[in-house]
TrEMBL record:
Residues 207-218 have a biased composition (Acidic residues). Residues 125-183 form the PKD domain. This is PKD domain protein. GO terms for biological process: carbohydrate metabolic process. It comes from the Bacteria. Residues 257-278 have a biased composition (Low complexity).
Amino acid sequence: MQAVNMKWRNGVKKIVVVIGDAPPRDPEPGTGYTAASVAKAAYEVDPVSVYGIDTGHLSSTEFRTLVTSSSGTTANASSPDQVSDLVNNAINSELNKPFAWIQGPYVAKVGDSVDIDAAASHAVSGSLTSYEWDFNGDGVYDETANSPRITHTFTEEFSGVIGLRVTQSDGQAAVATTQVDITDDGDSTPRDQDNCPDVYNWGQSDFDNDGVGDECDPDPGFPTEDKPGVCVVGENCPPDSGAPSVQPTPDPSSGSVPTPAVVPEPTKAPTAAPTTTASRRSLSNTGPRAGRLTTLAVIGMLTGAAVLHYRRRVIS
C-alpha cells in the first residue's frame, strides 16, 4: 500500500513489482490492509498495475486476485539470477499495452448529462477495438462502445472514480480512471459547508460576509450608488464638449518661458587626408650626393611625412 500511495505523475503508466517468497497477510497486522483495499486504492490511482515475482511461496489466492484485478501478472523465479530479467519483462509487458486516458475530473449536478472524453487513448499496436466504461468505480464495466466519447446521466449523488478499459487489435488491454463528483447543486463544496447549498456557486463568494452566498442571498450587500466622481459613460456622465485641449501660451513676464530645446549640430564627416603618391621615376645621377638624397626620400616615406621633392641642378 505504501507504494500505491506514492505521489504518481498523471498521464503515465504505473507499475508496482512485488518480489517475495511468502504470501502477504490478509488483513495485514497493524494496518488492517486487505487485498481488496489495496486493489481499490490501486484502481483509483489511474491505476497502478501490480506484478509479482515469486521466489518461493508468494502466490496466494488473495495475491493472485490483486494482481489480476490490476491487469498485472505473476512470474516464478527459481534463481536470484532471474529476478532482473523478470522485472524487465514486467516493464516491457506494460509498455506493450495500449494507453488509456479519460479527460477529467468532472463535476456535475444529479440528473445532468455528462460528456465524457477518452479521445487521448491510443493503441501501441494496431488500433483500439473497444471502450468499456465503469460509471461507479466498482471495477465492473457497465457499457461498451466503439467511440472514445460517451454521454452518461448520473441519477444519484456520487463521489469517486469512473473507469475505462480499452482493448487494441492484439487483445491487450489497459485501464484508466478519473475523479467524478455528482452533487445536488452541481458544485463540489460539501453541503454542510456550502453557503448556497441548493444553488451552483463554485466560488462561494459572499460580499457582505453574512454567511449566505451571493448567488442565493436576496440582499448580498452590493453598493446601490456610485461613489462621488464615478459615472457611467452614456448614462450619467456630463456631456463631453469634444473640443481639443489647447496648451496655454507662456507669458514672458512670468519668467516661465520654456528653454528652447538644443538641437545638436549634425556630425560632420571627417575630411579624408590627401593621398600621397610616390613617384616611380628613377632618380638621375646627381653625383656624389645622389645616395644621400635617395636616403632622405625613403626616410620621409617611412615616417608618413610628405614626400620631399628635391630639384637640384647639377653643374658639372
